[in-house]
Amino acid sequence: MTNDRFAIDVEGITKTFGDKTVVNGLAMQVRRGEIYGFLGPNGSGKTTFLRLLCGLLKADAGSGTCLGFDILTESAAIKRRVGYMTQRFSLYDDLSIAENLRFVADIYELPEARKAVGETLRSLGLEGRGGQLAGELSGGWKQRLALAACLIHRPELLLLDEPTAGVDPKARRDFWEEIHRLAAEGLTVLVTTHYMDEAERCHRLAYIAYGTLLAKGTMNDVLASAGLTTWEVSGPELNELARILQGLPGIDQVTAFGSKIHISGRNESALDLALGPFRQAPQIWQKIPPGLEDAFIGLMQTANDNFSTEPAGNA
Amino acid sequence: MFNFARFTAIIRKEFIQMRRDRLTFAMMFGIPIIQLILFGFAINTDPKNLPVAVLAADNSPFARRFLHAMENSGYFTITEQITSEAEARRLLARGEVQFVVNIPADFSRRLVRGEHPAFLLQADATDPSAVSTAIQVINEIARTAFDRDLAGPLQNLTSRPGPAELRIHLEYNPDRITQYNIVPGLMGVVLTMTMVVITALAVTRERERGTMESLLATPAIPLEVMTGKIVPYIVVGFVQVTVILLAAKALFHVPMVGSLPLLYLAALCFIAATLAVGITISTLSRNQLQAMQMSFFFFLPSLLLSGFMFPFRGMPEWAQVIGEALPLTHFLRVLRGILLKGNGFLDIWPDLWPILVFGVVMMALGAMRYRRTLD
Question: A182, B183, B250, B322: least CB-packed within 10 angstroms?
Fold first, then answer.
């Protein structure tokens, strides 16, 4: 395997702030042209990892390359080839759309900045609205503009930090179609998200909690590594049932999904044993393959158990 | 490496934002004008026409001569003629008059007899600076006012010159016009106030809105971002300096004896130093409110301990030590030196280098803190 295959190839990446380890020995390989989903609870170190990748922060330990450049020593070269879209709208509210794009184009020293701005406006369908202040745009338009600004210098790698937070479903779907189109053209995308439907649209996934990578690979790899068995129950008096089942030995999670509940456990025989007395009418019981959400919640609990010194079960 | 194209892109962006931000814009030009009007017209450490009540039981030519001389000095205006000491006390207590002159009934008779009679000036000395010059003046009047009426046989009662004569030359501001001192000083005060706050806010705002993170993820290096943010405000500072100089000339007729290019050079050093303070504050504060509070934390001692409001040499030693560490203290000396005294470069150098040292230290501190802003 040569380095050329990977847009990102890092290992042992560690970053501590004070006595808090935010990223702990993280290894990640992202192939070129791939959409890589990066998941994990809030505060798990996703944003910090992105900042380490694009040279905003220096890793305390670890090594690796981003687009073939050393992440510790060649951050200037990396920055020129990466588009980084931060969690919050990162353009200037008090500049117009065209002024924002022009500023970004100038910062990347594009030789034909004016032309690049015009093309971007056209591709956004914002011709004639270039003079409007960016702060006046709706959430969906802001997000599209921010993405366009990240792409104006034709980066090879796109880092997206929760790009669709607070955006309506239609705009979200359009956004993902755009991402897939870009990936088909050869752009590599590393995207953090909390949405399961978005995770399912990624080629590969990584799950991180408390700075530690818990699972990675394709969706099926991640599901397998969670090692869950899941029962789906529908019928009457589900709330009552859920309350009783919660915390029984062998049962790791009970989650409500509308008119159904999912009951999952890491140990299949222990789960079946625990559920034995309850599996009767009037509810309908069915063993199903666990979904991503079950898997992630399971992974998170595993991490919780390993992380805290308190015995599990009272959480 | 430092890239000039990126640097100018940042400058251009700053100027557009400055133009759009009405409040900041108003602050940049409103504050100098308001301060000029408030301080320039309102502060007067040499007050004239102070109200006086006269309690004269003796209406002789001597008494009238003295009261005339008082009014002619310009420091006193006789507003009341009263007849009792109770009334005098009441007027003083209520602050309706600043002084009461009390001339006893047999004043002129005893004066002519050479008995060296006493008469009384009561002053409301709550604010010592309001009465100090007036009291000096009235002493001189009391010594000489009666001379013209002491002709003929009374001539031996006239005031006699002392054994030696002290000549006093009031240099640089012979008429003791307060504005000549205040208005040049205002330039330093206005620059301190606006430059620190504006830069502190500009940088903090960028971080608060999250745009700083994106900016640093681009090839732009911190030095380009910082200098690109500073340069527009240096321009603003120069505009303020010019506005104040023009007002000083047109409204207050402040003499400008020294070299204006030298003054602009000194202003450049001072502006750079205050901007560095703003940058450092921005690296210490989490949000714009904190930046504002910290700016005031810097501004207040500058205003009070620099010698702008109160005579520097009148402050206790510890306050002078703090004052010497503030750039405004030195800049005020430079300004007044150039404008009123016509000082040249060598004269102002002892006060110019402390400003430079202060600026360099602040800049280093800001740069050091700035590296860690994202953490």
Answer: B250
